[in-house]
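Q: Hi! First time asking for a complex rather than a single chain. Here are the components, and I think there are two in total. Is that enough to go on?
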Amino acid sequence: MEIRISLDRVEPPAGRLRLAPGPEPTPSGPAREVPFSGWLGLLRALYEVVGPPGQQPPDAA
Amino acid sequence: MATLAPSPRLRGREVELAALGAALDRAASGRLAIVIVEGEAGIGKTRLLAEALQDARGGFQVAAGRALELERTRPFGLLAEALGCDRSAADPRRAAIAALLNPRAGERGAVTVSSDPGLQFQAVDALVDLVETLALQRPLALGLDDLQWADPSTLLTLGALARRLVDVPVALLGCLRPLPRSEELERTLAALEAAGARRLTLDRLGEQAVAELVAEAVAAEPGRTLLAELSAAGGNPLFVTELLGALLAEGAVQTVEGRAEVAEPTKPPTLRLTILRRLSFLPDDTLAALQAASILGSSFSLTDLSATTGRPVLELSSVLAAAIRARILEEEGDRLRFRHDLIHEAIYLDLPVSARVGLHREAGRRLAESGAAALQVAEHLARGAGRGDAAAITWLARAAREAAPSSPAVAAGLLERAIGLLEPADPGRDRMLAERAGALMAAGRLTDAEAAYRRLLDRDHDPSVDAPARLWLARTLSAQGRMRDALRELQLLQRFPTLEDQLRAAAQGSEGVARLELGDLDGAAAVAEQARSAAATAGNHPLVSLATAAQAMVEELRAHLDGALRIVEDGMRLADRSPQRQGHRYPLHFVRGRILLELDRLHEARSTLQDGRRVGEQLGMHWSLSLYEVFLAMERFLAGEWDDAIAGLEAALELAAETGERYSLVLVETVRSLIALHRGDLRHAEQATARAERELADTGPRYRSHWAMWARALLLEAGGATGEAYAALAGCWDLCAGAGLAVDYPVLGPDLVRLALAAGERARAERVAAAVAEVAAGNQAPSLAGAALRCQGLLEGDPAILRAAVDAYAQGPRPLQLALAAEDAGAAAARQGAVQDAVPLLRQAIELHERLGAARDAARVEARLRELGVRRGRRGVRRRPRTGWESLTPTERTVVDLVAEGLTNPQIGERLYISRRTVQTHLASVFAKLGISSRAQLAASAASRRTPGARPD
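A: Yes, that's all I need. Here is the structure of the assembled complex.
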């Protein structure tokens, strides 16, 4: 899959994240743009688009 | 899936733990032990400290605290927290300290940055006393973490603690990061090192320790790939733990047959991103609450979080439970704190700058509404402020004024931040600059204060600050001993046509003192009278006292001692009728003490100087306490108790070092030099004289600075350079005569007559003897009569007159002068062949010198006796041994007895009417003489001496 990130600011990062359209279905349904702010926001946007790593529940730590 | 163990054991720190254990052992044996652990964030300092304090719990009382970045401006915050100084504390001493640090409205009058600069020192004394008292009940382990964030007052106290409590069972264990390093921290670290602190640097963990840490955390043997992945953490335990936690949270670690492994290695990002990666698995609500909490610092209360977010405490508590479970937050009493500062920092820095600024501003506003402390409100508003933000500036200034009495250094820092926010053309800018300079002065940063005042005054400035700023600049210069510079500023100030009466009177009062110091007695008398009259009209009682003191000193220096005493005693009666009479008596005690010394009324002098010192301590007026110590030491010197005098002089030096005051240093060094000279320790005498001369070269002349010339002359004479000695002392005399300092004629006269005669300058000797006789005739004091007779007797080489001098001195309390006169009389009698008259006089001189410990003088007289064919046989010069119980002075013995009773230094000081610092100096001397190193050992040793049959040493 291809993920495109547009940055409005670098540190901490802020912008929008989008899964580029491809042949395979995505875990979060049809491709859409997710705005984010900060590294935390970027990670959370990523999980929203592609699903969390290992599909673990959020408070697994 | 494997999860992170709650708290893996400390790994790879055996050497450091052993060092901390050794420090605890040392403290348990009764000695101060200090260890400072330094290392990068996350390296395990906090954990190491916690482990050491846990080990200490069996035999120690444990007091622990951690400095917070956002609370660097809370005066004494770290130490007060560690020692549990809270208004609600059951222990009245702790509650009293809390009240001192945070007075309720109405408990203290209007506060400005310079209204009560001594409170800081009162608080330092109170905290050091508390530590001493606690530790003498049971050894105390004091663990202080994150010292790089400690407030300046806590750092000042740690320095004092290290200097004063060397013989007390305290283990001071501190941790800090390599950066940031404030000037105050550097000074404290230097003080701790001087007190024998051990510095430990925590390095990264070795591979083995990392493997053990991981094995325990995942309850399995770590595989090679997992360890390779974790090696990116560079042996930093926090990084290792966070990275492992992230891998576990992502489900990347699989445990198969007892081996934990990752499928494929990845390149981990920085520690900060690793932390965020782990945090990213928390629920949205929890993350948002953590972000809001990060604005409040690394430790926060739910009440404050509720105030700043507007969410109920109960709701926040539920939301943050996930963060506690994930070991992001820890509960700490009634507060929550981020498990590590780096976790806090990662969340805080992940907020966009604009969000941080907005959140701080909002937090400040809401905290102000909820009645939070000014410091807390100011901290947030300042972080959220841009140039010209009136609310932030107002709160910073308010916080500075609140902090000023207990921590002027903090006040200066807050005012600096407020000034940084002011528009360049803000009409209040110069007032704030002047206020900041005042705080710097009160903090003992005299040269910084001087520079700040000068920068303000040397450019176009608000006319309303001109006069007060120049007055304080002059006082800053005076405190540095730069009297000429101070006088110049005071004269400039008084030329202002529109100077307010109060300020003019204050300037005149300060000018009177400066002129006195410079030996301009007529000028001092004139302005002191103007100041006194103006102050009386204005009802300014403290200034009336100061001006009266200056007037009395003028008369004292002119050797009109009875008149001087009358002035000062009238002043005291007047002060007693004014409000706050104690404060107004303060400068008068000092002058009265000096005059009584001149009149040979040593007991009364001592008592009045002790009264003054006590008032000074109560008022926290440390600026001038060192002068009281010096004159108390002078009394001990005149009374022949030279060990006590030395202890007092060292206490004065310590006080001067704490306050930055240099006023008294010349006198301290001169008296040390004189004692060393009479004892035959010419090396130390030379060093002390050189220090006094250097001090004068740096700062300019001041009260009794010519005594340094006197000490130099005596040193030259001791080195055989009689001609040069005469020239030096004659120069010193001329300086006094030129200024009319007749009070020193009897001090310098006998030496100058002797040297003048040796140099063939009989006319000079005659003039000197006549001048001393005139002073003696105008005053009633045995030593003045003795000095006059001694000068006359030396001049005429008449043993009968010198005998009369001996009789006169014998009526008074000055054994050194009596011994020297007896030596002169004996020598004169011997020169006339009256050996039978000479021998008893010389014997009397030797006995007195021996009692004083004046070895050099005793040896000189002994040589005279030998010239007469008299040998003292095996008795010889009886010197007190240098070590062992027999070497202790009477005061040292008394101090030992009181230590054995379990009294603290302040309690002993109260019992003996000496300062706690002097007690400490005596104890240091006792330890050195007895070769022991703790109070406990001393008490045991003293007890065994009292036990029948016990060996004395």
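A: The interface with chain B takes residues 9, 12, 14, 37-41, 43-44, 47, 52-61 of chain A (CB under 8 Å). Let me know if you'd like any chain examined more closely.
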